[in-house]
Amino acid sequence: MPRLKIFPIKISNMHHVTSFLRIMNVLGIETSCDETGIAIYNSDEGVVVNHLYSQVELHREFGGVVPELASRDHIRRPLPMIHQTIQDAGLLPGDIDGIAYTAGPGLIGALLVGASVAKSLALAWDLPSIGIHHMEGHMLAARLADDPPEYPFVALLVSGGHTQLMACQRPLHYELLGESQDDAAGEAFDKVAKMLGLPYPGGPAIAELATRGRRDRFTFPRPMTNKPGLNFSFSGLKTFTMNTVNGIDNLGDQDRADIAAAFQEAVVDTIRIKCERALTETGLASLVIAGGVSANLELRERLKKLSKEKQVRVYCPPLHLCTDNGAMIAYAGFLRLQDGSTESLSIDVRPRWPMTELN
Ligand code: KG4
Ligand code: ZN
Question: Which residues have CB less than 5 Å away from ligand 2 (the ion)?
């Protein structure tokens, strides 16, 4: 039996909760794609240590993540990183009260590594363990900011694998408003980056190149904004970009920068239009953005402007918590364990996992 006593509490207004609970330390393990993230969330102090190992260099020569290489590299990382994380937090293994790991969605081999480590430690240390939905982790990262959002809100989840709008009326409950019918926003950034000869991951590379681009040279389409609804589609925009690239003889540096700027502008504007529509349709007045693409500074600026124009509040996670990390998993694990979730020691991961199944 796990030795942790879990006291169910109301979590709607919770960020740091100590007054009526004993202090808890939750270890978070993130291995869903190409980053090994290990962190500790302390219920009194928040995120105390957050370590990240990125495999970007390993995959760069292939222009994207190679799943088998990712799993093999993940195997090497968690145990020394967990040791270091616990030490850097000034704790001992006996001070850990629960273990959270990413159970999906993601690459199956990569997920299995994190889940196996989590379950083995849970067995060895006699602790509860809890599988976390990666996108729920991303979304909850906004609550780790100095100014955390309160429920209800609309969540925009934009990563390498997902582009979704969710209505979050109360904690740990999700209603899908719309999602991409094809490529995710981050995937489109990564593919367009490849067309422009930029390294993986493409999002930061495009954003950097776009700073030297002229926004008024090309106008790219804003897909699916002319018809009603909250779904997205980025594959046509990708083809439009490809045709623009192919239509220029001797593509030079300025051409590439101009295309990057036009592409980024089109993605950001499309997302802005859909967010505005989601807020209007739900009647909600807060927007939370999360996932790797939420690190995009143009997107953050554009949504800040929307916030002023429409009197809505926009909440962004701290920049280092937008992309994959262990802190968001540790925090989500803390909330779920407090909410009374329990799990057996069997290893069960979900490469595909609709977030609404969490309800
Ligand atoms: O959330 P994340 O780290 O991993 C997934 O869950 O997929 O997101 C990674 C994605 C990649 O597609 C990457 O190109 C994109 O987020 N990304 C960005 C930026 N930083 C990361 N996209 C646009 N602008 C950025 N600054
Ligand atoms: Zn992610």
Answer: 159, 324
